[in-house]
From TrEMBL:
It comes from Streptomyces vastus. This is Oxidoreductase. Belongs to the short-chain dehydrogenases/reductases (SDR) family. CDD domains: 17beta-HSD-like_SDR_c (cd05374). It holds the Pfam family adh_short. It comes from the Bacteria. Keywords: Oxidoreductase.
Amino acid sequence: MMTTDRPVALVTGASSGIGKETALALVAAGFDVVGTGRDTSRVTPLGGVTFLDLDVASDASVTTAVQQVIKQFGRIDVLVNNAGVGSMGAAEETSVEQAQGVFDTNVFGVMRMVNEVLPHMRAQRRGRIINISSVLGFLPQPYMAVYAASKHAIEGYSESLDHEVRDHGVRALIVEPAYTRTGFEANSAKPDTPLHVYAKQRLTVDRVMADATRDGDDPAIVAKAIVAAATDAKPKLRYTAGPLAGRARILRRVAPARVFDKQIRKMNRLAG
């Protein structure tokens, strides 16, 4: 086993977008960084980042990858659960099987990683688990019900976990990005049982999401929030990433229900 005096961060979904920027930002912050992807043979090397293959939807893959990190570095100080998949379409258009696939990565993938890494963090009496949620972890999003549900699940899981692990020197923290300039919208799964009755409005919301993503935050803004969560002496439970996410959090907290409901419908060009 090789050991290091530098803190070690494990970042899932590090081949592009938020994960890539996070890996680079953590290197700059003084971490040894292990980044993962489902097929890292195609990944452009990043200075200071060691890449491993990992599919968070596979128990065996998760176990193997975490054991490799421990064998090589002797420790894991920060786990960033960034790997995730998108899902577009009305709730009724999305089969249970398709929804299970989303949850297997976005929710159960996080749980697999936590269950594998947490024993090591408890043994060393320190560590931070940073779960990447979304503004859709506390906001509704028409025509993205399954994705929003997965992020709402992460919020509840993470907050509960944080209370459980604090006594062991570990924190579980949440980072909430808003729309970010990544391939999210283009790479999101489309409904597997599309229905004509939703087609027109679905296309409208798809365009809204595409425009919002194109004009969204740079992934480096999210990476900055993640580094803060990893390094703050007294970390917050939740970090909103960027000004839009901060405004959305305030709106959810202070706006009257009727006003909030109307704003959601207006943003998504829904009648009434």
